[in-house]
């Protein structure tokens, strides 16, 4: 199974065997009673020993591989770990108009079948047989033929297709991000954590009114600024449902370093600054006016010609006045009839940051390396993950700086070791996330196998209401799922695996 933009895939089990995972999966659907977790993180954050009720048996349902469908299986398993997403799908299904043309649309059918699969993937107290997602694949292939094809499938493309299908359902009305106020502290839209299981909400009508906002939708702010004059063009905002992050060409890195690379201040060498162009035009006009005035002195005996020169001077003075007005007020104002001079070659900076953090932050770790030969290969860098991710350093934090050489945002807290206090601060800023699922990729770029790590939390906790101590104390249980097989692993296994491709973080 290939990564984005790559070529045909091979059957997965060969690679799985070569990755040495068969021994783990030989355990099949065993449920372990050993509490899992990152022991060092637990000590650092004062985590309590999980009580016996957290050690109950949990079984996860696998999904059969129907021929290169591991990309679908791993994505569905990851999505099923997100309580905010389950609520959203419930809301979408409840909003489908019944007994009308809309109820039979491709997207409505996809939503209904997706809800069915998510219900089946909820953690169970008993061993359960794997499910065949054939019907869902058939519906998805009506939206994109590639889903059912033998090659070029990619987990990120599938995620984007599902996200857009749900947004396209008739009568699903999403709250406008601009209406909400993307820079405000929006605690009301906060989602729950990663639920375990238990029965999912049956009251879809209620869900429709409370969770209709796509939990993946966030907003980013992009600013381009001229280093020469400091002018900042209007800050552009755009929505996203996942962020595609480049991975540096190193052996080991972290998700924070990838986010830092995404939000770094880039230098552009081919920028044409509007303000610098106006300044250059003003300088040209002043020279032209000066030249015309000096020429006027020799036209005392040629009144008609002198009048034409005076008219030219008046026209240039009028242009000069409009340009000076634009500089003083708004350089972007329409300047019809004035030919702007080319500004001197300049350097600008561009920076993109997260302006409104989504309820579920989906990070795509782009592992494609484009070779000079035209081919593509996989970046094998190991990317360390954090159980809790504080995105404060990558957000605008509500204060926007227009200085070209400075970050868009105001002062950000230092990164580094997390303590309960710094995590609580990040949570107050809506910037604290908990890792809930990972789609990872084994093998080469143009072949290989997708699997998922999926978190199962405590049934009796609601992170959206829990205090920070309770959130930190909650036991994490993690499962690695490869198609039809699931095996429990430790949190340390997940955080240290390094081969993540799609990361799913739910806001606390
Ligand atoms: Zn400039």
Looking at the structure, what is the overall shape? elongated
Structural class: alpha+beta
Helix content: 25-40%
CATH fold call of the domain at 216-270 and 354-364 and 386-418 and 425-449 and 497-508: Cathepsin B, Chain A
Q: Radius of gyration in whole Å, from Cα? A: 28 Å
Any low-confidence stretches, pLDDT <50, length ≥5? Answer: 5-51, 172-211
Quantity of strands, as a count: 16
| Mean pLDDT over all positions | 77
Termini separation: 33 Å
Helix segment tally: 16
Beta strand %: 15-25%
Let me know the largest β-sheet: 8 strands, mixed
Q: From the 3D coordinates, which CATH architecture of the domain at 216-270 and 354-364 and 386-418 and 425-449 and 497-508 would you assign?
A: Alpha-Beta Complex
Specify the CATH class of the domain at 216-270 and 354-364 and 386-418 and 425-449 and 497-508: Alpha Beta
CATH superfamily of the domain at 216-270 and 354-364 and 386-418 and 425-449 and 497-508: Cysteine proteinases
The molecules bound to the chains, other than polymers, are: zinc ion
